[in-house]
Write a structure and sequence with these properties.
zinc, 2 domains, Rossmann fold, globular, metal-binding, alpha/beta, NAD(P)-bd_dom_sf
């Protein structure tokens, strides 16, 4: 096709948040023989992910790994250049690729009995080689990267699933075995204490998924959220049976650690830390018990592990990076949301033309929940 379509590319924001959103016209791509062309309806406001999950994760469950990425992602650059971006620190803005849309055309070699058909509502799993930007039309080389979306899920919600929700899901799932092991060492009336750091999109997903995942152990698992901002404090409080402690950066570090331990009734057993700074991880370790584990995104592991691995080892603690998650997990997540077993966090939809303003506000944590860019009005 020779027609043109609009594309929005979001790069990692620099110190002044300028020149990180680019909008231009690109040719509508031809349909790959074994793939499909997708008409993008909604996209999550994420910046470009420089490292994508490997194709091997498509059929196997992506899990916690002891090795961290050899190719540092945009997070590390942001932390060295622009630590003032609150939204990057609390997970309101993170790298990824979140697209929901409608199958516009199928390749010439696609068999008629394929599960994916023209007109299907789908999300795109962020495979290796995913496009660099959000265009009105994108292509996928193989249908295995597409996950169908039931009619019960609006595409604005579906767009939140492929990166933020999927990473949160894999992180919570990764904690499960450790939680079970901890409970075996405790008395019948003792609990396993989990601390979730952040109240951006990642942490809000993790909070909801953890509440569902540990529902069978609800009397033996306690969850506390460390909120980095006032609005996040209110959002976290909406969830029942969850403690909330506010990490006010104006307080001394010792005060924040004591405040957190008080809220958790002592040191915690597990920390899910979606913060991206050394200070956040240091604080998490100080609140963690001997033998405890901190789970962090593999996207920030290369920067933080060299600084803290020895310290954690001395305290007999572990820091475990978590990858994005597999396509099988994404399919499971879609079904859980469709059945309303997991309630999505709040989100706000903005026209794609406002991407620059949206990213500016996300950097300041000025948008509650997730921000979604709408390219076309369909559902």
């Amino acid at each position: 096709m020779n027609k043109l379509c609009r594309q929005v590319s979001i790069e990692s924001p620099g110190p002044t948040i300028k020149d990180c959103v680019f909008s231009f016209e690109v040719p509508v791509p031809d349909v790959p023989p074994d793939g499909a062309r997708i008409r993008v309806v909604c996209a999550g406001a994420c910046y470009r992910l420089r490292r994508s999950p490997s194709v091997s994760s498509l059929s196997s469950q992506s899990s916690v790994t002891s090795e961290y990425s050899q190719e540092i992602c945009a997070h590390a650059n942001i932390q060295s250049q622009s630590p003032a971006h609150h939204g990057v620190r609390d997970g309101a803005l993170f790298p990824g690729y979140e697209v929901a849309g409608i199958v516009e055309s199928l390749g010439t070699d696609v068999k008629e009995n394929e599960n994916i058909k023209e007109g299907d509502r789908v999300v795109l799993y962020p495979y290796e080689g995913v496009p660099h930007g959000y265009a009105e039309f994108i292509i996928v080389p193989d249908l295995q990267y597409l996950v169908k979306i039931p009619e019960s899920i609006p595409l604005s919600i579906a767009a939140m699933l492929p990166t933020g929700a999927l990473l949160a899901m894999n992180t919570v799932f990764s904690t499960h075995q450790h939680v079970e092991n901890i409970l075996k060492t405790k008395g019948e009336n003792e609990t396993c204490k989990i601390l979730i750091v952040g109240t951006g999109g990642l942490a809000l997903w993790a909070l909801r998924i953890a509440a569902h995942n540990f529902s069978g152990l609800r009397d033996r698992v306690s969850i506390t959220v460390a909120s980095l901002k006032d609005e996040g404090f209110l959002l976290a409080q909406e969830c029942a049976r969850v403690n909330v402690v506010q990490w006010n950066e104006d307080l001394y570090e010792k005060q924040l650690i004591e405040r957190t331990k008080d809220a958790c009734s002592g040191e915690v057993d597990v920390v899910i830390d979606f913060g991206t700074t050394s200070r956040s991880l240091h604080r998490s370790l100080q609140c963690l018990s001997k033998g405890g584990v901190v789970f962090i995104s593999s996207e920030v592991a290369e920067k933080l592990l060299p600084k803290f691995s020895r310290r954690a080892e001395e305290r007999q603690q572990m820091i475990k990076p978590v990858d994005m998650g597999s396509i099988d997990q994404l399919k499971e997540l879609v079904q859980l949301v469709a059945k309303k077993e997991i309630e999505p966090p709040p989100h706000t939809v903005f026209p794609a033309e406002e991407a620059s303003e949206v990213i500016r506000r996300l950097c300041q944590s000025d948008i509650q929940g997730r921000a979604i860019l709408r390219f076309q009005a369909v559902d």
